[in-house]
Amino acid sequence: MSEVAARTPARSGARRYTPGRVMSFSDAVFAIAITLLVLPLTDLDLDPERLAEQLRSATPQIVVFAVGFTVIGLYWLSHHAWFSRVRTVDDRLLKINLVVLACVAFLPFPTSVLGTHSGTAGTVFYAASVAFTGTAFALMWTYLGRNPELFEADSAAALRRHTLVGLVTPVVFAASIPIALVSADGGKLCWLLIWPASTIASRLVSRTSRSSSR
């Protein structure tokens, strides 16, 4: 069935769509963005006689590639996991998703900047870009949470927990900005807090959910 034919009018008069093409387009944007991350490495002018030295000097850029790949990869996992539960898409969700994809498509640029300019400006620019992207994701999940008719009926509680835990990433990156203004390396080290902070947040949210369900 075509996308146009799959439109079903909502009670409010809003148009509805099947999510297939939205997911395909989104996956394509993620795939292109994550592929673009490696281009700064492929552009390196390597001299066979100084290969080992040049590879060592490229280590910071390789690390930045790994960081950028991890960030975009985790955002893709989140998008894929939750959009696969979406049963119908309305116009507003389409627009919010486009904002999210614009943020994702933009991320290779600040990642490249960080790889070549790892000082204060590059660190702040990258942290702000990731924080903005995470905020856009949180807004999209919040919208879904407020419109449960768009996705699987038994996923509402899990989506709320995911939204709260997902806020850890933009909060940590945003909090690293003032630290990066003092020390760029200190700001980068703050990013490592995402993993323990996410674990703690997940446990707290799960405990709260169990307590409220009693």
TrEMBL record:
Compartments where found: Membrane
Ranges that cross the membrane: 21-39, 59-77, 98-118, 124-144, 164-183
Tagged with keyword Secreted: no
Reactions listed under catalytic activity: K(+)(in) = K(+)(out)
Signal peptide residues on this chain, from the entry's feature table: none
Membrane association type: Multi-pass membrane protein
Keyword terms, alphabetized: Ion channel, Ion transport, Membrane, Potassium, Potassium channel, Potassium transport, Transmembrane, Transmembrane helix, Transport
UniProt key word Transport: yes
Pfam families in the cross-refs: TMEM175
InterPro entries in alphabetical order: TMEM175-like (IPR010617)
Family: Belongs to the TMEM175 family.
Listed name of the protein: TMEM175 family protein
